[in-house]
Amino acid sequence: DEYELEQTAASNLSDVLQQHSSFSVSNKGGLGADPSYHNRGLARKYIKIFIDGMDISDITAPQEEPTYINNFNLNDIKSIEVLNGSQGTLYGSNAIAGVINLNSEKPYIKGLLSNFFIETGSFGTLKVGNSFDYLNEKTLLRLNLNGEKSNGFSSYTTDTESFPLEKDGYDFLSGKILFDYFFNENTEFNFVLRNSYHENEYDDIYSSPIDTSSTHGIIRQFSSLASISHKSNNFKHKFTIQPSQSSRINRSPTTFEYDSLRKTIEYLLYTDINRFTSLTNGINYMKLNADMNGEIAEKKNYAFFSELRLKPTKNINIDLSARREFDEDYGEFDTGRLQTNYALTENLILKSSLGNGYRSPGMYELYSSLYGNTNLTPEDSLSTDIS
What percent of the chain has pLDDT over 90? Predict the structure, then answer.
């Protein structure tokens, strides 16, 4: 939560997540290097990450669809939610190892407010950020800018007069707009826009010389989300559209570029049947377009899902959820989950969960001319939890 994030000595998101008992991170170098991360021993290709409800994972990355977790500024995050176990019924493919929801800081004081921070450290590292907030009875607005720069260090191991080490620098810039408008107590509009630019220099073991300033990685990402929700008696309707673009460029003696476009549309209907029963139904459509250094690929899927929440007694809560997903390449997938929560005493709660999930092969795994294999089939999973 917000208090824990303020108290932590961590300087980036991967360090914070490692404080969670089941999460581990393997760094691959200095600032700008893309770390590998695992939840309960399962690699990041089985984990979904959302920032303010947006999925900005890179669908063209080899073997997986990673989210670059250190491209988020901790000073702009209000809370982090880690959902363990298979979350496929509500989040679809690639949520076998769980879901991480990142929620941004929002204005909480009426009027106009500005926040500024600066951080500096070794290797010429400088991090700055500024946000402008505005809040009144109907409008919530935050404009946020963050920048980070580092001279870096060399990951090479030899330092001689004839072969001096060359530093690997890092530059990052991101901007975000959060806007909520409340028409009345029953209807609201939400909008998020995020744009980021990441560039890092690295040492490529396949190039010669290895320690060189000619290899660069550039990642540009643009994402937005717009939703409108309306309450009427015991019903709440929510319609969301989320387009996102990603461009990844690797520059060495040769330049390789990977571009992607994701479009997601979702409709949710929440219903309170009575004091003890509620029902959520949803429809989701997603279209993926990829350009992998000139190789074009496209994929579509859509899904229907439902979650029933029951409270048969004062001390028992039961969640039943199911999802049917239609994949353009693989046909139908059915997933389901049963969760129970039993309060034995005021201070002792027993929880259990049983659910299945799946992971569809990524665009690169399927359609890359060099390494792709269109005969790959999805992975199935069964997850059990007792706590």
Answer: 57
